[in-house]
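Ex. 9. Protein: Methyltransferase.
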Amino acid sequence: MAKEYSGSPKHHLLEAKRKRLSWILGVSGLCILSYIFGAWQNTPAPTNRSEAYNRVGCDVPSAGNGVPLSSSSSPSSSSPSSNTLDFQSHHQVEINNSGGVQKFPPCDMSYSEYTPCQDPARGRKFERTMLRYRERHCPAKEELLHCQIPAPPKYKTPFKWPQSRDYAWYDNIPHRELSIEKAVQNWIQVEGDRFRFPGGGTMFPRGADAYIDDINELIPLTSGSIRTAIDTGCGVASWGAYLLRRDILAMSFAPRDTHEAQVQFALERGVPAMIGIMASQRLPYPARAFDMAHCSRCLIPWHKFDGMYLIEVDRVLRPGGYWILSGPPIRWKKYWRGWERTQEDLKQEQDAIEGVAKSLCWKKVIEKNDLAIWQKPINHIECNKRKKVYKTPHICKSDNPDTAWYRNMETCITPLPEASSSDEVAGGALEKWPQRAFAIPPRISTGSIPGISAENFREDNEIWKDRVTHYKRNLPLAQGRYRNIMDMNAYLGGFAAALVKYPVWVMNVVPANSNQDTLGVIYERGFIGTYQDWCEAFSTYPRTYDLIHAGGVFSIYQDRCDISYILLEMDRILRPEGTVIFRDTVEVLVKIKAITDGMRWKSQIMDHESGPFNPEKILVAVKNYWTGEATHKKN
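Predicted structure tokens for Methyltransferase:
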């Protein structure tokens, strides 16, 4: 007979499980209570509310959206016990403030117009052959100034654009020399406390506007096909100033020579310009950069040195680009007496220039009145055939045509990218302006720059659209406060593109040691710029930029040179009450702020436009207004 159970086996199993679960819950509860009791016993109660806040750093002063302005605040002065939990951040930058903020004294007033790499006194130590002494010769480390360049005693805020095209304050650039030397040519006139720029020039006595109209009758200046131009030996840049009305952006350059301050006048007017010269080194621009090049009595010996200077113009001209020449030797039959040269000499010079242009495969478009115009071919298919007959100048071999920073000029033709047919534009055709600003640049669409795709280009445009929208909340971009803007690390030129609707222009700088050379892309978009090593001074006068943008610059250079000298250089080229926008990590920005606090700058760290969780932050700084003291001569 089967044994009878008092209950089912399933019932006994459930009872056993309930007992085990109750035991586990009981032990866990005791453990939790023991931990809480122990923590309560070992944690001293704060004596006041502020001490509780100090433990998590809530007392650190902040700006904008809460990013610390400095690390000078400290927690409670009492030493925590070894058992106290440490809530302090361990990734913040430590700043040694034991000596206080380092103050930078003003330089002597004799340095008010100091141009470190084009200093006439230093230049005189170099050979005069090919004007090498007027090229860049930067000071050695022991010669660097550790002071701030002063503005003239009566310095005033420059006129706003477009009034600045025609007027500048005399006290800002106290030089009358050009108004006397070029009085007949109408370059510049003194009217009371200001200069007036009538728009005249050596070869355009009727004014730059009428002169440009004469050019427009010969080649199309208003169709959008010509956007970027270079003016060699620009004077006070009236040609570039009046081209802006036609949506043409000119890079004007001239040396620091006997025509004192001509580039300084140009920038004071709000016109793009740099100190520069055609001597022995390449111009600091990429190949195929400019749609048009211009020389109006620029006194460059185009026919000498095996045509090297015209060969350099060929390098920077885009396929199909134009070269315009006015002044000697053009129309020498009319002007030879006024030029104080013989007819034979002038005819020989023009014949030599014609010969160099022909050897470059250029076509002479027209010579009419005071103007002669040549055009570069759109590709080298026919030129390569001709080189089998005419051997010189030969086409360069294994050369990076964009390399231009301290690179010597050559007497060989810069090769154009391959073309499959005679009507194909080498390197790719460009859209007309203004579509060109946002069209995919040929250097990107053809894959010429590794790591940058069309999608990267579009994303960069969207990023800069958001950034400029963010900047507008704090900066008066649309109110004429800023005119001359510099982007110290321009990448694809997105900042310049996002500002295209404002009355500004941007000097786009690509660091010479960048992993990706993108300056050619910037020119293909219809903007201008230059190469630069920021461990050296920029080729400009003091007080020539209203707004400087420095995105990631100091992360690049902080291990290459002393960043205080970069900041002093920024201070030199920034106008009084000018603005700087830094973008970098908090660690780098805190280093920068520690230096600029001693430079009479007011600054504030703010969050990234995407919010506080982005590790990149923004430091906005404004240079205070201050001037040097007038020097009084002793009797």
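Check your answer against this statement. The chain has 18 helices and 19 strands.
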